[in-house]
Design a protein that fits this description.
Layout (H helix, E strand, L loop, with lengths): L2 H10 L1 H12 L10 H17 L7 H14 L9 H16 L3 H10 L1 H5 L7 H18 L3 H27 L6 H27 L9 H19 L2 H34 L1
Helix pairs in contact: 3-4, 4-5, 5-12, 8-9, 8-10, 9-10, 10-11, 10-12, 11-12
C-alpha cells in the first residue's frame, strides 16, 4: 500500500491514532480507553507501514513501528482460542524481536507462561502441530535454562512420533475437495516444525546434529518451502506469518552469536 493510502487511513482514524500514540509514548501507563476493535484497527495500520518498510529493517522508523505494534498488542489481555490467535502471538514475538527489544518479549512471555503451558493440545492434527510449534517457540525465546531448549526440541520430537497416528485420521475426515489444500498446509507446518527444531539444536549446541553451522540458510530453506505450501493451501495468513518468523529467526540466531562472542571475549580477557 502506498503512502497516500496510509495517510488517508491515518486521517480517517485520527482520534484513534492520537489515543494510541499517547499510550505508546507513556509506555502504557495511561488507562486503556480504546475498544478492542479500535486497537485491532490501529494494529492493522501499523502492520501496513511495517510491511512498507520491510526491506529497511535497520531503519530506526521500522524498529520503532515494530516496538509500537508490540506495545499496542500487549495492552490487551487476550485468550488463545484459535489458530489465528496463535498466528498473532507469534507475530507479536517476531515484531518484538525486530524492534531489537528481545528483553521485552521475554518478559511478556514469562508473564504469559502459565497460559501458554496450559494451552490444551487438540487431536485435530493441523492445530496440534501449530500449538506444539508455538509452545516450542515460546521455550526457545524465554530460554531461562538449558531445560527450556530441551523442552522445545522434545515438543517437535513428539510431533514426529505422533504424525502417523494423527495425520491419517485427520486426512480421512476431510472431503475430497479440501484434502489437497489441507495436505499442503500440513507440509507447510512440517517445515515450520523443522525450522523450530533447527533453532533449538543451534541454541543448544551451536550447530545441527550433522555438524552444519550454516543455520541461517537452513532456516531460510525450510521457511521458503513452508511459504510455498502455505500459498498452495490458500492460507495466506500463514504464508505472511512465515515472513515474520524468518526475520525473527535470523535475529534469534544473530543474538546468540553475539552472546557467545561476548562470553568468549570475557573469558579471554579475564
Amino acid at each position: 500500500m502506498d503512502n497516500n493510502k496510509i495517510e488517508l487511513l491515518k486521517n480517517y482514524f485520527a482520534d484513534l491514532f492520537q489515543e494510541i500514540f499517547k499510550l505508546v509514548l507513556f509506555d502504557k501507563y495511561l488507562p486503556l480507553t480504546l475498544t478492542r476493535k479500535e486497537v485491532e484497527k490501529a494494529k492493522e495500520l501499523y502492520e501496513l507501514k511495517i510491511l512498507e518498510l520491510w526491506n529497511n529493517q535497520d531503519n530506526e522508523e521500522f524498529k520503532k513501528l515494530c516496538l509500537d505494534y508490540f506495545k499496542i498488542s500487549t495492552l490487551l489481555n487476550f485468550d488463545i482460542k484459535s489458530d489465528e490467535d496463535i498466528y498473532e502471538f507469534i507475530k507479536i514475538i517476531s515484531l518484538g524481536y525486530l524492534s531489537e527489544n528481545s528483553h521485552l518479549v521475554k518478559d511478556f512471555l514469562n508473564q504469559q507462561k502459565q497460559k501458554i503451558e496450559n494451552l490444551e493440545v487438540t487431536d485435530k492434527w493441523n492445530s496440534r502441530l501449530l500449538i506444539k510449534i508455538f509452545k516450542a517457540i515460546f521455550y526457545l525465546v524465554i530460554n531461562n535454562s538449558r531445560n527450556d531448549i530441551l523442552q522445545a526440541i522434545e515438543l517437535i520430537n513428539q510431533l514426529r512420533d505422533e504424525q502417523k497416528e494423527f495425520e491419517e485420521n485427520y486426512l480421512k475426515q476431510l472431503d475430497e475437495e479440501n484434502r489437497p489444500y489441507k495436505s499442503a498446509e500440513l507440509i507447510s507446518l512440517y517445515h515450520f516444525a523443522k525450522t523450530s527444531e533447527i533453532l533449538g539444536q543451534y541454541l543448544l549446541e551451536g550447530k545441527t546434529p550433522n555438524n552444519d553451522f550454516d543455520i541461517e540458510n537452513k532456516v531460510k530453506y525450510h521457511l521458503k518451502i513452508a511459504k510455498e505450501f502455505a500459498n498452495a493451501s490458500g492460507n495466506i495468513i500463514l504464508e505472511l506469518l512465515y515472513q515474520y518468523v524468518e526475520a525473527f529467526s535470523i535475529k534469534l540466531i544473530n543474538s546468540n552469536i553475539e552472546y557467545v562472542r561476548w562470553c568468549n571475549g570475557n573469558i579471554l580477557g579475564s
